[in-house]
Amino acid sequence: MSGPVKDIDYLALSARIRGLIDTHLTGARMERFLTAKTDEEAMNVLTECGYPEFRLDDAVAMDRAIAEVEKATFDDMIDFAPDPAVIDVFRVPYDYHNCKALLKEKATGVSADHMLMRNGRVDPETIREAIRSNEIRLLPKTLSLALDEAWDVLDTTDDPQLAEAVLDRATYAELREIADGTGSPFLKGYITLQIDSMNLRATVRALRMGKNADFLRNILVDGGEISADQIVGTLQTGDARIAELYAPTHLKEAAIAGEKAVREGGSLAVFEKLGDDAEHDYLHDAVYMAFGDAVLIGYLAARQVEYRNVRIMLLGRNAGLTADEIRPRLRDAYV
């Protein structure tokens, strides 16, 4: 397609997505899974949603099934998407996740097979071989540069957290670059919210561990509505006013809960859920727009929530948890 992509170019894809929504794991289907008396009944719910049959107590088979469904979704959307770069936003993080896992594998000698994600742009085995043979330069340029820097940091400092921070910053730098390239305000807003959410979580966890502003400066990511410098500056005053800092953002309620968790201790469950709720609120109506890239972005994000919920429900069921114990751990379905 020549020229800039317009919302109307997504008309056919948007109609296709609306036709797919009812085939996925809706809130009603999640409830049926939670209250299923037998594994067969529970599996029937998943097969209705397009998942291949597998043993519910087999975690490896579960991950393989989810990956298969996700790959089919990506392949389907790529066939119809006017701008495939929008889909890359959901694939890029897997590449950097795999870099983290394989960097750790190289450093420790312990296989990372169980950690690898198969639906990035680069096959994990390609990354593994590039690292093993010291031919990182053969990977895509942005990935190669980030991986090279992360290895240098790990080799110099022997601090895996600092090496992972390099890859986190590279992840979001590339996501920002992709979003800017699409010219989509909705996508730019989505990436900005993700960066803000990541930085807020990192800040709350660091403060609960008693870490200082210098530590935090090394792990924060640039590009959010609240800059890394603003966060560090607030902490350097000795008064961690997180809630005040995030008050103008979608994460206002999460920041209030985070500040309370820093001050009073206890579980981070409420804080984590409010962070997820902020993203849910940003994306929720997108799937139901008439057309545009926001429909695709909202749909792919909704599918990621679904995959997470499937894991939570299966792991909870296998652990013998009741439906009432599992429900609070789930994230709202978009449909």
Would you kindly provide a written description of the structure presented here, covering whatever features stand out?
The chain is built from 16 helices and no strands. It is globular and about 55 Å long. The mean pLDDT is 89. The longest helix has 26 residues, at 293-318. It is mainly alpha-helical. The protein has three domains: 1-83 and 303-335, no CATH class; 85-183, V-type ATP synthase subunit C fold (Up-down Bundle), CATH 1.20.1690; 184-288.
Estimate nothing, just give the exact number of structural domains.
3
pLDDT under 50 segments (min length 5)?
A: none
What general form does the structure show? globular
Helical fraction equals 55-70%
Instruction: Estimate what percentage of residues fall within beta strands.
Output: under 5%
Count of separate DSSP helical elements: 16
Order of helices and strands: HHHHHHHHHHHHHHHH
**Could you say which structural class the secondary elements and strand pairing correspond to?**
mainly alpha
- Let me know the average pLDDT: 89
Beta strands, count: 0
Largest sheet: none
Descriptive labels:
single chain, 335 residues
Note the topology.
Blueprint: H1 11-20, H2 27-34, H3 39-48, H4 59-80, H5 85-108, H6 124-132, H7 141-157, H8 160-182, H9 185-208, H10 213-219, H11 228-236, H12 242-246, H13 252-264, H14 269-283, H15 293-318, H16 323-326
